[in-house]
């Protein structure tokens, strides 16, 4: 049996991965007045009627310790993947207390629930840590031993979660690991994350549904991989003999600007940049139309300029490596959004 808390993208890819391996998957889903299971619809035994097969969903929340104890006691899982979080960095500045409660204390509630249910010796626990822990980077590239310097309420909350996982591992001998995952994207990424915002907007421009869109810091550089590759690494971390923390990354760095250029290139447009800072625009070389502008409201109060992971340890100990290239990732996201917008311009 496996149980997971469903996060934006990863929960759906992880559920697929585990179901293929023959697991019974239990997911925690928050109650919402609008449907929030879109990314896992296809995993139901009967998607139309929401009839469950080997994937079972439970209503719950990382802010409610009683429900976590109840679910864990009922399911008695062998593996727990904590992917639940308020995971938007920019929004964490506006929802700092909530982010701390869910991402930081929520992880403690889950660990305490394992202890309360007497499962310390039988369960393996995966914590979704993040490259945002490195923030203002102290060395390049970043690896497991690089000092942390978070630059957002999200990063600070995840820092608490990281260390409380280490503490449970050392204090109670729980098999608990932190996966320090660098940015991982996919067509299932939330619409207000920069990569998905770009692929959606480029698709709409391609279909004549949009003329122009705004971004924040075009020169932020990230190590971008595909979520499908990264969920395999999560699983591999729980199959080792000894619990250890791992950095998962591609080792390649690309700027937001580059993501924009590659996305437009895929639909046959060449973007030429004009102006400086907030007055910079991206113009289509072929038509002369401005498609990209910069808006200061999308900047973070404290920026993370550069992230590049070194996953040597994962390559050696887990025999893991990324399969999807940056170019393939961009193409897949743009193609998926072109299809989506074709069928529903309001999507």
Automatic annotation (TrEMBL):
InterPro entries, per database record: GDP_Man_deHydtase (IPR006368), NAD(P)-bd_dom (IPR016040), NAD(P)-bd_dom_sf (IPR036291)
Keyword list, A-Z: Lyase, NADP
Gene Ontology terms for molecular function: GDP-mannose 4,6-dehydratase activity
Pathway connected to this protein: Nucleotide-sugar biosynthesis; GDP-L-fucose biosynthesis via de novo pathway; GDP-L-fucose from GDP-alpha-D-mannose: step 1/2
EC number: 4.2.1.47
Named cofactor requirement(s): NADP(+)
Catalysed reactions, semicolon-separated: GDP-alpha-D-mannose = GDP-4-dehydro-alpha-D-rhamnose + H2O
Transmembrane segments annotated in the record for this chain: none
SUPFAM superfamilies listed in its UniProt record: NAD(P)-binding Rossmann-fold domains
GO biological process: 'de novo' GDP-L-fucose biosynthetic process
Protein family (similarity comment): Belongs to the NAD(P)-dependent epimerase/dehydratase family. GDP-mannose 4,6-dehydratase subfamily.
Job of this protein: Catalyzes the conversion of GDP-D-mannose to GDP-4-dehydro-6-deoxy-D-mannose.
Record-given protein name: GDP-mannose 4,6 dehydratase
Native species: Athene cunicularia (Burrowing owl)
Classification lineage: Eukaryota, Metazoa, Chordata, Craniata, Vertebrata
């Amino acid at each position: 049996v496996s149980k997971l808390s469903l996060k934006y993208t990863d929960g759906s890819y992880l559920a697929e991965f585990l179901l293929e391996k023959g697991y019974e998957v239990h997911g925690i889903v928050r109650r919402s007045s609008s449907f929030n299971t879109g990314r896992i619809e296809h995993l139901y035994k009967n998607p139309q009627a929401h009839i469950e097969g080997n994937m079972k969903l439970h209503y719950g929340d990382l802010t409610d310790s009683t429900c976590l104890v109840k679910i864990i006691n009922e399911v008695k899982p062998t593996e727990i993947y904590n992917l639940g979080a308020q995971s938007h960095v920019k929004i964490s500045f506006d929802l700092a207390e909530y982010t701390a409660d869910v991402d930081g204390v929520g992880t403690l509630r889950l660990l305490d629930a394992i202890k309360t249910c007497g499962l310390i010796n039988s369960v393996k626990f995966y914590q979704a840590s993040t490259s945002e822990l490195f923030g203002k980077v102290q060395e390049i590239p970043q690896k497991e031993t690089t000092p942390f310097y978070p630059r957002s309420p999200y990063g600070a909350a995840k820092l608490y979660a990281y260390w409380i996982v280490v503490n449970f591992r050392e204090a109670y001998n729980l098999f608990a690991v932190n996966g320090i995952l660098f940015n991982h994207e996919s067509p299932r990424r939330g619409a207000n994350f920069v990569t998905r915002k770009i692929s959606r907007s480029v698709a709409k421009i391609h279909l004549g549904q949009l003329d122009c869109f705004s971004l924040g810091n075009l020169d932020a550089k990230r190590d971008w991989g595909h979520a499908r590759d990264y969920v395999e690494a999560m699983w591999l971390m729980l199959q080792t003999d000894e619990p250890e923390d791992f950095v998962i990354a591609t080792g390649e760095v690309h700027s937001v600007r580059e993501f924009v250029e590659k996305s437009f290139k895929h639909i046959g447009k060449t973007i030429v940049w004009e102006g400086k800072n907030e007055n910079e625009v991206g113009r289509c070389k072929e038509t002369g139309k401005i498609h990209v502008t910069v808006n200061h409201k999308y900047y973070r109060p404290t920026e993370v300029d550069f992230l590049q992971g070194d996953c040597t340890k994962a390559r050696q100990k887990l025999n893991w490596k990324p399969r999807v290239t940056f170019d393939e990732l961009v193409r897949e996201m743009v193609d998926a959004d072109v299809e989506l917008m074709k069928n529903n311009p309001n999507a």
